[in-house]
Design a protein that fits this description.
about 10% helix, globular, 15-stranded mixed β-sheet, 3 helices, about 260 residues
Length: about 260
């Protein structure tokens, strides 16, 4: 997955502590809807390229999260994107039970479904993938695979919510975390480095934030995309305030819109 798509669809990839002692917080999340703008920055150019909305509902079967992302009209001419992610997570530990990604990108269609199960410390993902090329006459192709990992495992969307169980007050700059993350095709490792606290300015107001750096690698430790930096609000809400990743030319940034509910 490209860094651009990760930045638009992730809006904060994230986390579990494996190998360092961290206290988890009990979390009871309210229904919410968070809005973001996605910008492209290169030198003096700093232009909005897309928008994204992240919503959460508390249901009897678990927390249900949805992320929608789309490129702006001018960016459609370069890379048209209309993507949706769904994740259903356990009330108990925010780990996923079902993940779905529906993508319309540059004329092609993709849909990934991952059904999660666990036995002890072994996590299994039964993944089904659907693909159709940009050619309108191309057939819909289907493939299935089974993914396995030792230790708590998330998907691209539920990772954000798991983050909100981590108590960053017990971490110091330089501490590192790792977790497994399943897509519809493969298992990756997400490595997180805690960089300390910074302020993030939104609408001329500075908000205290935890600064994190993310690195994605394959099982063979090969990097699968460029690094991403994220700033998470330093309060009980743990709202992603800013996301930044480098491109071959320029960088992509995501900014939280403070008029969303809740406020940071």
């Amino acid at each position: 997955m490209s860094l651009t798509k990760k930045a638009l669809l992730w809006l904060t990839s994230i986390i579990i502590a494996l190998g360092i002692a961290i206290n988890a917080r009990a979390v009871s999340l309210p229904d919410e809807q968070l809005h973001y703008k996605v910008t492209y920055k290169w030198g003096l150019i700093h232009k909005q390229a897309g928008t994204a909305t992240l919503s959460l509902r508390n249901t009897r079967s678990g927390y249900k999260a949805t992320l929608t992302a789309k490129s702006d009209p001018w960016a459609d001419r370069i890379y048209r994107l209309r993507d949706t992610l769904h994740s259903t997570m356990s009330h108990h530990d925010m780990l996923p039970m079902r993940y779905e990604r529906i993508a319309h990108e540059k004329g092609s269609y993709a849909r990934d479904i991952v059904e999660f199960s666990r036995k002890g410390n072994l996590f299994t993902g039964h993944a089904t993938r659907y693909r159709r090329g940009s050619d309108t006459d191309s057939p819909l192709k289907q493939a299935a695979t089974t993914l396995e990992a030792e230790g708590p495992t998330v998907d691209l969307l539920s990772s954000f919510y798991y983050l909100r169980t981590i108590d960053f007050t017990h971490m110091k700059a330089g501490d590192k975390l790792t977790l497994n993350i399943f897509s519809g095709k493969r298992k990756e490792l997400l490595h997180i480095t805690y960089k300390g606290q910074d302020d993030v300015k939104l609408d001329d107001i500075a908000y205290p934030a935890y600064h994190l750096e993310f690195t994605f690698t394959s099982d063979g430790k090969k990097k699968t995309s460029g690094n991403i930096n994220a700033w998470i609000s330093a309060n009980n809400l743990r709202i992603p305030l800013k996301l930044e990743g480098s491109l071959p030319v320029g960088k992509v940034q995501c900014f939280y819109l403070p008029q969303s509910s809740p406020r940071p």
